[in-house]
Description:
This protein is of the alpha+beta class. The chain has three helices and five strands, in the order αβαβββαβ.
Amino acid sequence: MHDQELPGLSISFSSDTSLLRKVAPPGKKSFAGLLHQGDTLSLTSLLAIPDRNGERVITLRVPVTSDFLSTVAPDLGAIQLNLLERYEAASKRKYLFIRR
């Protein structure tokens, strides 16, 4: 059922907390917002939860595609997103994130 409302939704569990540490404010155990990795823009939610071996990160990710955007406001018509933050391919930065 989630495929109709959130096309491409992926849910994963990992003990790798590196992405969360890069995008969440210091000391926070969660992140929710737009995340640009490589060629993919996604609506992403990350949450660290305690685990007997340390922490586990739950990741929910929906690619921001035309299919997804058509579910946001179907009566509105076509939606176009343009990333306004300057991105330099030569830089070593791999992530562009927008916090909510």
